[in-house]
Specification:
elongated; mainly alpha; 2 strands
């Protein structure tokens, strides 16, 4: 007696798809955007930390009223985080999502034929 099948086996070669030019291009585009921005933000963050630790006189310079350079740079960290997030969402919507949707659609067609 054979056991009942728990589902259809996929005939899609995911390793081949992962090595395909269009998937490599998708990864390249993603990494080309993410890695430079991540490096920029880490440098920007560590500059802030280093200035806070080793240049307190600079950070204490009053810009206006009770607002000093350290406070402005600290708030700039938040602004930068939101700006990077918005830039990534825009980039993903414009470049990554259409590519990944095409890949997914082709894989779903292959699965439907199996």
């Amino acid at each position: 007696m054979t056991e009942p099948s728990t589902g259809a086996r996929s005939t899609i070669d995911y390793i081949a798809e992962e090595n395909s030019p269009r998937f490599r291009e998708l990864r390249r585009a993603h990494r080309g955007f993410v890695f430079p921005l991540a490096a920029f933000f880490l440098v920007w963050y560590f500059v802030y930390v280093l200035l806070a630790g080793w240049a307190p006189d600079f950070m204490a310079i009053k810009v206006f009223g009770q607002v000093n350079v350290g406070l402005l740079i600290g708030l700039g960290q938040f602004v930068t985080t939101f700006a990077i997030t918005m830039a990534y969402v825009s980039f993903a919507n414009r470049r990554l999502d259409p590519q990944s949707a095409a890949i997914r659609e082709d894989l779903e067609k292959q699965e439907g034929r199996a």
